[in-house]
Please model this.
Amino acid sequence: MNQPLSNIELFAEVKDLIQSAKHQAAVAVNAELTLLYWQVGKRIAGEVLKGERAEYGQQIIKTLAKQLTQSVGKGWSSQQLRHCLRFAETFPDQEIVSTVWRQLSWSHLKQLVYIDDSLKREFYIIMAMQERWSVRTLAERIDSQLFERTAISKKPDQTISQELQLLRDSGQVNQNLILKDPYVLDFLGLNDSYLEKDLEDAILRELEQFLLELGSGFSFIARQKRLQIDDDDFYIDLLFYNRKLKRLVAIDLKVGRFKAEYKGQMELYLRWLAKHEQEPDENPPLGIILCTGKKHEQIELLELDQSGIHVAEYLTVLPPKAELEQKLHQAVINAKLRLDNKA
Model:
């Protein structure tokens, strides 16, 4: 004979049933509304194409918004209809739309459709779905220029497309989707003058924020990790593990510009970690050297990528948005030009 449930167990089970039903209902409503918005946008787009002037499209939207508001109530302003139109223009294929609206809300999509670059937009779509970003998190990621700061943005377009497709199809994450340059550390509250220890202490005080900036899958292991080699002691500033990459990540903090001798130091750390800490099912350790500046030709000549070393700048003070956008945009262009010259 089954034992009767306690009041606490009964409450927990019924509460879970209610919350599950609410969630499923919300998902269903979101899907139906998003499909409706796409269909409305598609119909408006077809009507707008009949006109020869841009003013015709604006007049169509203005008139339709007024008629719909009078007939069905609020929620169909001119701005909402423009969102619908943009949605249909950005995703002309309903089959593509159906894969998106199952995981992203209309509030997500309203932000995504105004990203003009298709690869950049695809990056945010896939990352938002894979990482289950809230609307607020998506807005913050876009505002912080995450795509431009991620290593993948410096790759050829074909490589970007292939790696995003791999992530979408299998959930497999490449390090280019996680590593950034620069890292924005304005939350540390550091002044213009500070030592490496000050930087390390500030990171540990704001470890949660630092983990968010590093990206998904990181967990903290140790600070000043001691390596004993022969009769000498060496120390890794910060040691992390990334479960998505399945590899240890050593971070070396520098308060000045990158110097060539940093390579040998990091290679020593990575080889020691591979020998003494790496598990059989893990990938080789990865090194990140954070510095305030670097010279690209030095980085290329040292072939740091082949050693599993990523050199990145960090910003303790966030510059004006327009200045940051321009700097990152130019960095992407320069990186792709260097790739073209190599080819």
Summary: DSSP finds 14 helices and six strands in the chain.
